[in-house]
Structure formats: C-alpha cells, structure tokens
Amino acid sequence: MTTARRRAPRPAPPTRSRSTGAPTRAQLAKARAAGKKRSQGARPKAPGTLQKVSPRESELERRPNGKPSAPATAGRNGAGNHRRNSNHAHGAAAKDPEEKPRVVIARSAPLPVQIPKPLEDEPEADERIARIMASPSYRRADQDPDFMDLDELRGERLELEYLKAEIELRRQDIRSTIVVFGSTRLVEPAAARRKLEAARRDLDRNPKDPVCQRRVSVAERVVHLSRYYVEARELGRIVSRVCQQGGPYQFVVMTGGGPGIMEAANRGAFDVGAKTVGLNIILPHEQYPNPYITPDLCFQYRYFALRKMHFMMRARALVAFPGGYGTFDEVFDALCLIQTQKIPPLPVVLVGREFWRKAFDAEFLASEGVIDPEDMHLFRYAETGQEAWEHIVEFWRGFGEHVIP
C-alpha cells in the first residue's frame, strides 16, 4: 500500500517592509482582485478619454499593493568610504521631484502588466515576484543610493553636487556673496568664559597636571580672541543691512556653516532678517549646521573641491578672522587664485593684525624671494567688522563700483 506523500508547507513570502519594497502575498492577491474587478466592473464613460493623473496616482498604479513606495534609505553615513548595509535600501523608490501630473488614456480594462501572475498558473509566483522586487537591480538607477555611491559614478556625483547648490542659489536670486572664515573654536564671550571657569576648576583639583595647566592657558587665549565673534557678528549685520534691501541679493553672507566665527557671521545676517548661506562639508564624525543659516540656503557637500568652487563663484569679498588649518586653507586658496589671475581682483581682509602677523609673515616670504613684493598687498588688515567693511567698500570704489545702494 502506497502512502501518500505529505507536501511540505510552503514558507510564507517575506513581509513587505519600508526597506525592501517587496509585496506580501496578501498584497499581491489584493492587486489581482482589483484588476479582476476593473476588468469585469464599470467601464469609463468613453474608452480613450484623456485623464490627468497625479504623480502619486501614477505611483499607485505601478505598485501591485496599491500603496506608494517607501523612500530610499541613504546609502552613505558621511564617513569617508564607509557604506551602509545595502539591505536597508532594497527596492525602495524615493519620490521623484521631477514627476508632474501627466495625461493618460483611460482604459476599459487594466493592462496585463498591472496584474501579478495568477497563482493557478504559477503557485510560486508571489515568492518569486517578492524576491525580484527586493533585488537591488530592480531599483531605478537615480533612486539607488548604493549604485550612486560607486566609484564609477564619481563624475556624476561631482556634477550633481555642483548643480544642486547652483540651481537653488540662482532660484533665490543670490547674485554675490561676502565669504567669512574663522575658527570653529572662537565662541561667543560668555561661552568662552564658562569654558575658562571649568578649566580653572579642573586645575584647582589637579594643580600640577600639565594637561590642566595647558587647558587653562588655551581657554584664556580663547576668551581674549572671543571678541572676534562679536566683530564677525557685527560684520554680518552691517553687510546684510546695507546690501539686502530686496532682490537681487548682493553681498550675502556665506560661511562654512559651522560654529564659532562662521556662526557669528551667519548670526549677524539673521539678526537683521537677511538671507545667509552655509556650505557644510561631510566629515567622518557627526556634525550640525549652526542655527542661523537660512534653511533653504544650507547645503551639504561631500567634496571639498565643489565646496571651494561655490565659495569663490559669487564672492565679492573674503574676510578671514583668526582660525586654524581650515581657515588658512581657504585664505591661501583665494590669495593664490588672485595672484595667478585665475579670478578677477577680490578684496581679502584679515581681521586681527596681531594674530595674522604671527601666523603668516608675508614680509618674510617676500624677503626669501618665494613671493613678489607686490603679493604682500593682496590683502588688508582690520580689527573690527566695521573696518573690514570699509576696506571692502574702498576696494570696489577704486574700480569705479559703489557697493552701497
């Protein structure tokens, strides 16, 4: 006597998730039922009638479960070449900002591609369709973060990074900028004094500790230099109050978007209700923009090169307050571009003569013959935000331009 073989229970297909975008069996069955109902039910008033379909409705038509796709999970965490697990973005389809309402022809019945394969014809159809739609290959190329993160796509990423900021700056009628650099560590005076008090308390507990001694010494210098936070904020106020009297927007304060001096300059523009720009750079550690940037004018960059380009493209002046490597990098970039005439003449103002003459000895470079004496005059010194602005106005007046409306 033959014993009937028991068929093993079919494993349930994977649940549709926000990350995979793969449909469940119930959702596929629902799509089949909806297609059948449309095929057998009411007809449109006239087959061939033109109908306007919104992007959302169009998306619902494309998805067998009748729900829009989940947004794609970002493929990068902003740290060097580290990548997120690609499983977190399978099959996701982000909303396409380019999609607009479109005109379609009303049909009396759905197309075959709108209905999943019937289970009576293929019992394994649901599981197979779910696996296909969960595969990275099924993602649209422009909505696939892992694909966009490939080395082979670097050229496209560079172009997109340039275009995103450029298009928005044009849209907001930002014609020219004043770029402000300076240390992230030079905070407002009250915050600097709090840090000094904390350092002194640590030194009181450990009077012979050289680390604590150094912290107190550095904190005292930061308190001394914190006056430049006040001056950078005042510069932002002066420039924005004078030059932003309705569009087009000239001499808009632009910074790297971080804390310290950059925050102060953005804050000054914020104080008078003016537009102000921040260009953040992705770093291996988490960071935040300062809270005084105009929300629609804060951009995030992966590449320093593109960020530098946008700093210089609309710059009508560059003002540098005391800072470290990042500040020096931007200052010397600008001086080199002016010296080699890669860009038109541009006023460069170094605020804080005592600091800059110790940190950067142009006279020594000229005496050593590595720059020409005339290169010593590519920049000016100032002590206050008001004095820096006066140098800028004077510079452009020498070229027959009046920057004050």
In short:
The chain is of the alpha/beta class and 405 residues long. The chain has helices at 25-40, 55-62, 125-134, 145-148, 154-171, 189-205, 210-225, 227-243, 261-271, 304-313, 325-339, 353-359, 362-367, 385-398, and strands spanning 50-53, 102-105, 177-181, 252-255, 276-281, 298-301, 315-320, 348-351, 380-382. The model is unreliable at 1-19 and 56-94 (pLDDT under 50).
Topology:
Blueprint: H1 25-40, E1 50-53, H2 55-62, E2 102-105, H3 125-134, H4 145-148, H5 154-171, E3 177-181, H6 189-205, H7 210-225, H8 227-243, E4 252-255, H9 261-271, E5 276-281, E6 298-301, H10 304-313, E7 315-320, H11 325-339, E8 348-351, H12 353-359, H13 362-367, E9 380-382, H14 385-398
Parallel strand pairs: 3-4, 3-7, 4-5, 5-6, 7-8, 8-9
Antiparallel strand pairs: 1-2
